[in-house]
Amino acid sequence: MKKHDQDFMKRQNRLTVFEIIKNQHPISRASIAKQTGMSPTTVSRIVGELTEQGYLLNSDQVSAGLGRKSTLLGMVNASVLSVGVDLDRSLMSIGIVDLQGKLVCSSKHPRIPDERPETTLLRISEAIEQMLIQQELDRTRIVGIGVGLPGIVNNEEGIVVFSVQLGWKNVKLAERLKELTGIEIAVDNELKVRALAEHLKGAAVGSRRTALLGFGHGVGSAIILEGEIYRGVMNSAGEIGHTTVDPSGMMCECGKAGCLQTYINISSLLSEANRIRQVGTIEELFEAKRAGEHWAIHLIDRALMYMAITINNVVCMYNPDSVILSGELVDKFPDIHDEVEKIYLSRFLWEPLRDSFAFHRSMLNERGVMIGSGLLSQNRFFALE
Question: What is the reported pTM?
Fold first, then answer.
């Protein structure tokens, strides 16, 4: 076996052992060896390295039945921290994430929609530094910064290839943010990191094939297959918002006509609402619906119909065991989940697949991208260290 293959296997084994301890602690070395098929010597070596570096602790010996006692391994949750950044059109959310995927602290910062990349990255760097100072956190414990954002991302090189919502193209985000912070950077699509967070810590724990759909300022999806993010050739798998549903339909901000997201996303809904009367926020539009204004009822009901159609299409393509509804629309208006399930899925879901999946609302809500980004950077740290 070539040396780089051996190094890769060592990193993968290390990450596997670490994830098992993180998710199942307290746990014995023997149990880890049994689950992974690794030799006891390999497991002991990896555990020794992680313990020496301060990530693990040994609990008191406990009886494993008759015979020898086994030492159980636990995590030192505060030994490693990461930063998770949720970057959207008009808002930046930044949080500190511990080893268990819990937010230690977080903050929100408004963003001008047409803000230049350099300005945004400077502000992210400053906000992180301010948070570390305010929370009196040891900077050396921060092993990485993860950034989740809408659009197509080269996750291996940390480049934003194209983001309609941000107006960015070929932005070397990881390289520049590392220059500003001195910390390793992981960058990915927001829905992919949100799906990772739901898979590890939210509604999709235990699922083998998860489809997460996001409805907000954009429309998209992410697929988790056997614990891995399905990416496609360009890491653009799941960009369903720009699938064409009506070639004679409304113009999308991407430059095409009739994209799916023009019937669902917040900016399109507000644009259409303002043809009737001035509506400044999506909350005002839903207030108009609740007040019985027929034009508002039509716009929102049509959006919910297209959500159901989207769910049906994704279920037909990927046959998941779990479908999770997420995004700003669902976070702000939790009733959307129930309305889609009770009214629209019965009309648009293909009958043979009706009972083939569980239908969830996001458990992590607006925290999902921060948590997922933070966990992504941790996984990269432990795989590459």
Answer: 0.85
